[in-house]
Amino acid sequence: MARGLPALWSSVFGLPLVAAGAYLSGFVAELSGGSPSQSSPAAGLIIAVFGLFILAMGWYVHFVTAPETPQMRADEHLVETRNPAQRSALAEAALAVPLLSLGGYLLYFTHRPLYQPTIAFGGGLLLFSRGIYRYWQNTLTTYSLTNQRVIEEYRFISLLRNEVPLEKARGVEETRSAWDSLFGLGNVRIRSGASGGLTVAVEQVYDPADFAGQVRRELSSGSEQTAAAQEPTAEARADGVAPPSADAGAERERSVDSTESATGDATDSESEAVSADRSPDTDETA
Asked: Which Pfam families did the record assign (predicted)?
């Protein structure tokens, strides 16, 4: 089951839309006072259908399982797990409600030019759709930091996984918009190349500076381990001695085996010669 309460919040936003759309669709004539109305019952029907869509998606997201902890590789351990905040997305959707109400009021209760309620209603619908979608997306997104990778996982209908190996990371960038600053949120981007390349964007998390610091510490730790592993090779090259390799070791073992075999053959030949020299003496004595 997903974290948070997506079914509850989708019902809070969706049910009023369904009720308002059904009411406006059935009583357009009464609202206009018997005079020709500039709106049609289809507008209320569209609002009701949109509310039903919000309800259905919210309940679906509620029962979708959030991504599990990624499977660790050899010598890999989990350092930190973060989830995007949901508060800012809900606030964005809530701010759209006055705009939607204003658009409905201008459309059904006044005789203002049609472009005025259209602008108000369209702006509110855009803001509301972006906020509720971001809420669903944040509910189903998980960010994981290990000592080898930074992983972003998002599960909706299928699982989407994006990761950047720390050994290939070339930059850590922190950003924070004015809206995110109101809620203490921020974004951290880990890039695998100077010109972009593969990027993991850790978006809308609390205390982004701490997460970015953890990524930098893991990068420093990995660099130190790589440098320590390369020190014996560098010293051997500086002294003019080739570093040992698996092929050299195998060749050395074959040389030792060949030497031992040759020594054994020589010993056997000497023993046969001594035996041959002793044979005539034995015959003469007899």
From this structure: bPH_2
